[in-house]
Amino acid sequence: MTGSFYPPQRTLMGPGPSDVPPRVLGALARPTIGHLDPQFVALMDETKALLQYAFQTDNALTLPVSAPGSAGMEACFVNLVSPGDTVIVCRNGVFGGRMQENVERCGATAILVDDDWGSAVSVDKVAAAFAAHPEASALAFVHAETSTGAYSDVAALCALAREHGALSIVDTVTSLGGIELRVDDWGADAVYAGTQKCLSCVPGIAPVTFSPAAVERIQAREHKVQSWFLDMQLVMGYWGGESKRSYHHTAPVNALYALHESLLMLKEETLEAAWARHAFNHRALVAGLEAMGLSLAVDAECRLPQLNAVRIPEGVDDAAVRAALLRDFDLEIGAGLGALAGKTWRIGLMGHSSRRRNVMTCLAALESVLSTQGAAINTGVALAAAEAVFAG
């Protein structure tokens, strides 16, 4: 490639990123101003307030970290976990495993609570872990496990942490804006997310929020935070306070324009309407998939509407199907991860990608490709089944 790059127009229905709406792409193209410009500082304040709405929190320490969701995860751990601490880590998919990695890199001990991939975190197992390890200072778990399409009970798990004097660290990368999340009502202490999933913003920013109890823990640290860039006491000099902001780093100005626009769109729609939209489109997609003869890998009671793990039919070439969807239909779906690699596809209905048109496009394209491969599916019925849901 020797000239400018012009990407193809894809329909993004994988585990992220999701389709970015024109309003958000347009915001990216606005004139760049300085990251300490008074007008940009005003935008920062608005963005913080919009994030508080999205998280349903009044936490003063709420901000977008200038890096992807993985940096939001690391920001929570390096600020709240110190060498010698004990942290209970729930592992029911890939991203619980990444939490374990963060705990250990902080010099702490991870007590693992394992559940089957595709299952919710067991509240009873976590209670047993606290009983066995009363010294635990934190509980870490994933709300919406992107690798499996299962969600867990945030309110119950956070209540357990509080009962045992521990903080809760919660991964909401795939849940923010897609399913119910109420940080304050549920008592979550450190929560991180990503912009490229149900917020339908460009990748590269990680919203985080810390409760007053978490802020107390940060301020009482006896060891420096191991990451200078992610040290919340330093970052808040730029993002917090009523007086003049202090320089910490050059924020991604245009990306923050995009985040502001996507959060504004979420507030215009309202959280409740966004949650309902994701659930409605999910029901239509599942109806079509099941009519086709396909099944989902996660039980209905803990199944994410925005991330659907679909079992790959016997004898079907996983990679060939995904390649054909991309080549022939400009449609991206995701492969399985970890224990589910080669066993599931992950079909995303996140943010702007959660639309009737995308549901119908995906069903038609998948039926076409699977039929070409000779898969044992029911043809000519998936679109009608989805349409029946849309018709109410």
Automatic annotation (TrEMBL):
Q: Which domain of life is it from?
A: Bacteria
> Could you say which residues form the signal peptide?
none
A single GO molecular-function term is: alanine-glyoxylate transaminase activity
Pfam families cross-referenced by the UniProt entry: Aminotran_5 (PF00266)
* PANTHER family, per database record: ALANINE--GLYOXYLATE AMINOTRANSFERASE, AMINOTRANSFERASE CLASS V
Is Transferase found in the keyword set? yes
- Stretches that traverse the bilayer: none
**What is the species of this protein?**
Parahaliea mediterranea
Does the keyword Transferase belong to this entry?
Answer: yes
- Supply the name of the protein: Alanine--glyoxylate aminotransferase family protein
Residue stretches making up the Aminotransferase class V domain: 32-336
What Gene3D superfamilies is this protein classified in?
A: Aspartate Aminotransferase, domain 1, Type I PLP-dependent aspartate aminotransferase-like (Major domain)
Residue list for modification N6-(pyridoxal phosphate)lysine: K197
Q: Name one GO biological process term.
A: glycine biosynthetic process, by transamination of glyoxylate
Which cofactor does this sequence's record say it needs?
pyridoxal 5'-phosphate
